[in-house]
Amino acid sequence: MKKLLEVKDLKKYFPIKGGLFGRQIGAVKAVDGISFDVREGETLGLVGESGCGKSTTGRLILRLIDPTSGSVKFGGKDILALDKNQMRKMRKDMQIIFQDPYASLNPRMTVGSIITEALEIHNLLKNKNDKETRVHQLLEQVGLTGAHARRYPHEFSGGQRQRIGIARVLAVDPKIIIADEPVSALDVSIQAQVINLLQDLQQDLGLTFLFIAHDLSVVKHISNRVAVMYLGNIVEMAEKNELYNNPRHPYTQALLSAIPIADPTVKRERIILQGDVPSPINPPSGCRFHTRCPYARDICKKEEPVVKTIGEDHIVACHLV
Amino acid sequence: MKRPVIEIKDLKTYFFVEEGVVKAVDGVSFEIAEGETLGIVGESGCGKSVTSISIMRLVPNPPGKIVGGQILFKGEDLLMKSEADMRKIRGNEISMIFQEPMTSLNPVYTIGDQIAESVMLHQNLTKREAFSRAVEMLDKVGIPASEKRVHEYPHQLSGGMRQRVMIAMALSCNPKMLVADEPTTALDVTIQAQILELMKQLRDEFNTAIMLITHDLGVIAEVADRVAVMYAGKIVEYTDVMTLFQKPGHPYTIGLLKSIPKLTGNHKRLEPIQGVVPSPLNLPQGCKFNNRCPYAREKCFEKEPELVEVEKGHSVRCWFHDQLQ
């Protein structure tokens, strides 16, 4: 399959300023050298705990924040070399859905004008009459009705607001959608509705998704491949069934064993990790996971593990594999 | 069966707002025995949190008011107690843990001060004794270097550690009952696993009755003994945890179980519950779930079903519970 998005050795260090003259006294290594591809028409899931850099990665790809180093290619084109105007045009093909649908919709704009704004910015309207038909069509596509166009965001429930966010994204007919925790703020019954909607749209429109989430069950359900992040690194990436059935990195293993399963008959050996995720300001030396890893050896403290390919499409960064 | 620590009978908590009356909790009854964990599940707005603050008598008044029912704790009705008596019970005999530990800890006091405060207040200990009790509790909840940590402020701790401090504080007076309102929702999965494990250990050690409120059916399966499923202010199903997952009786419970993506097995399309939770100001006539229920028939729109015991220890609020499967 064709690679739609190629990310190579992407890094983002946020400076920490301090002292009398506001000099830089340190850096938060939010994303520290990650590489992955997203293939056309697939869903790549990106999972990890808070602070692992998964959301930063999403924003870096869209250049909502600029990376410290590395490269991002979209359809073969290096998007880090684009200027502001070219980038704005590029964003027609790359869109993002946010976690909190309320915070990302302007409360003073009607749903109709929220959606037409995107159409107008990218000059996608042929004439004035076209506007209304297009808005209605988009709203119906996400399971709302044309009558909703005249209402304001506060009149909708959380799930409906997320649908509006999706309609806005679809308005510009993007190729890739970065979905940053799109269902975490929703109740389970509504969450399922939105997941189904995303899957239907992918099928109908041939969309590509980068699906960022912390809920491993949701990610497994929706993704083709899954990448696991820990403290700014990708520690393991594989086809989803391979990753969930045969996790090789100790962190992936612990993460999977920690998910509470909604079935009281399932009894399993649980790996309970000690301690918390260390601060990304001074991440541990060597393998970043060694402070919590039950199998850590001397080499893990000293050397950073290289990424190994251990099967078709299965990569892992661990000394002990 | 063990004697119940708490019995809630037909509890009704209403909020009187400009637009009308919100019946947040509308006739809820359940009981929890010593050393038992009752899980309360439901989606936002179903009244699970209002149930917990009603037990603590912390309903903001106005606009809220407990308009009926009984809360029998050790045989005495908490709704008849004076505010002074309630103060002796809260944090001493019934404790509460909240979802967001940062907003429930005071940022300007050390965690030692905060744990010691409730111990001194309820147990008549000196400051020195209370502090050593705080250190002991921090040890119990697995905080390393507790002697040093006791002098730290909440902002110096991580989310998981803060939740441990909340649990230490809640258990410092050895309460008979613990109300945990979404205690792990704000935490990452690996930390959630630690906290759930800790709660199980402490329950066995102190024999506390736990009321665990959550929206996560996985957490329920993991720690609850019995479960009450709430919808629109009412319990729609009440049973032990095995029955709930294997023989769910209410269409809402069945719908919830079908909506969650499974970690194991093959991937079928999710079957979400249609529609949205109705506005509490404008609940449907008859069964409150009728507008979203795939099985709804005429009778469901006419009259609201009662919660009936369909098997021993398994109650369901549905007219057609025997015809669903």
Mean of residue pLDDT values of chain A: 90
Identify the overall geometry of chain A: globular
What is the highest CATH level, the class of the largest domain in chain B? Alpha Beta
Share in helix of chain A: 25-40%
- Corresponding CATH architecture of chain A: 3-Layer(aba) Sandwich
Unreliable residue stretches of chain B: none
CATH homologous superfamily annotation of the largest domain in chain B: P-loop containing nucleotide triphosphate hydrolases
Q: How do the strands line up in the largest sheet of chain B? A: 6-7-8-3-9-10-12-11
Count of all domains of chain B: 2
Alpha-carbon distance between the two ends of chain B? 30 Å
Number of helices of chain A: 10
Spans of chain A of 5+ residues with little confidence (pLDDT < 50)? none
What does the average pLDDT of chain B come to?
Answer: 89
Model description:
- The complex is a heterodimer of chains A (321) and B (325).
- Chain A is α/β, with parallel strands linked by helices and 321 residues long.
- Chain A has a single domain, classed as P-loop containing nucleotide triphosphate hydrolases (Rossmann fold, 3-Layer(aba) Sandwich), CATH 3.40.50.
- Helices cover 31% and strands 25% of the residues of chain A.
- In chain A, the strands form 2 sheets. In chain A, strands 6-7-8-3-9-10-12-11 form an 8-stranded mixed β-sheet, with helices on both faces. A 4-stranded antiparallel β-sheet of chain A has the order 2-1-4-5.
- The longest helix of chain A is centred in the middle third of the chain and has 18 residues, at 188-205.
- By secondary structure, chain B is α/β, with parallel strands linked by helices.
- Chain B has 2 domains: 4-87 and 180-323, Rossmann fold (3-Layer(aba) Sandwich); 101-172, no CATH class.
- In chain B, 33% of the residues lie in helices and 25% in strands.
- Chain B contains 12 helices and 12 strands.
- Chain B has an 8-stranded mixed β-sheet with strand order 6-7-8-3-9-10-12-11, with helices on both faces.
- In chain B, a hairpin with a 2-residue loop joins strand 11 (308-311) and strand 12 (314-316).
- In chain B, helix 5 packs across helix 7.
- The longest helix of chain B is centred in the middle third of the chain and has 18 residues, at 189-206.
- The mean pLDDT of chain B is 89.
- Classes of the chains: A alpha/beta (321), B alpha/beta (325).
- The interface between A and B is large, with 41 and 45 residues.
